[in-house]
Amino acid sequence: MVILDGGLATHLEALGADLSDDLWSARLLLEDPSVIRKAHLDYFAAGAQVATTASYQASIPAFTRRGLDADEAEELILLSVRLAAEARDSHGEGTVAASVGPYGAYLANGAEYTGDYDLDEDGLVAWHRDRWHILAGSGADLLACETVPSYPEARALRRLLAETPGTRAWVSFSCRDGERISDGTPLSEAAALFADHPQVIAVGVNCTAPRHIPDLIGRIKGKPVVVYPNSGETWDAEERRWHGLADPVEYGAAAAGWHAAGAALVGGCCRTTPEHIRQIREHLTTA
């Protein structure tokens, strides 16, 4: 059993960071990288065994849109890995997973929860390629291909894996219900793309309502299952705010159930905190 971290942006906001920006947590790579390191350390202290980097929205196009050149953008992407590695080293142990956010994260319009894209598979390969190779060569232990909402994007990521044969990764999808990923493709079909892939260590689901996780776990075959749902709250893309509330103790109890149902890697995504991860650890220890 591996315990992942929780919502990086959520904890950064709790630490006082202003993330009201299309770059989201990647903005702090420019403005306050030390707070990112602090957030990683807090998650390790809560029981996480993996630090997921602040590169979810840190793409080359996102930074060049902000006015940086390609070399400056690459340096910031590499910085996201160094910060997680520094926190890992300070803690004394752990794994660094370099976040590969979906194209929808760059669009900053909620498309990572719909898969409504203006690029086809070839276009997605081209869009992801530069950051993919930067992160593959960054020294991170693996790539976390996360919140993947569409089947064409999953196919694009599979093609990029072939370009970096020494790279390990997990692939996790955003899902609309207990059966389908966000673009409507059955999760079983999307997950099957990676079922026999030697570089993929786990396949699963993230940033999805916790109530759907038990059904989704059973639809993944051939690989260890990774799940890190959101808190169950609802994101309003128009208002750019969350609605609802989630209790960490209840989340920890649910996580023990996901592990019992077959999940090998468990953590949290948006709106989960170090306390959610602490509760996962406590419930799994006493289960």
Automatic annotation (TrEMBL):
GO biological process: methionine biosynthetic process; methylation; S-methylmethionine cycle
Taxonomic superkingdom: Bacteria
Alphabetized SUPFAM superfamilies for the sequence: Homocysteine S-methyltransferase (SSF82282)
Keyword Transmembrane tagged: no
Name under which the protein is recorded: S-methylmethionine:homocysteine methyltransferase
Gene3D superfamilies assigned to the protein according to its UniProt record, in alphabetical order: Homocysteine-binding-like domain
PROSITE patterns: HCY
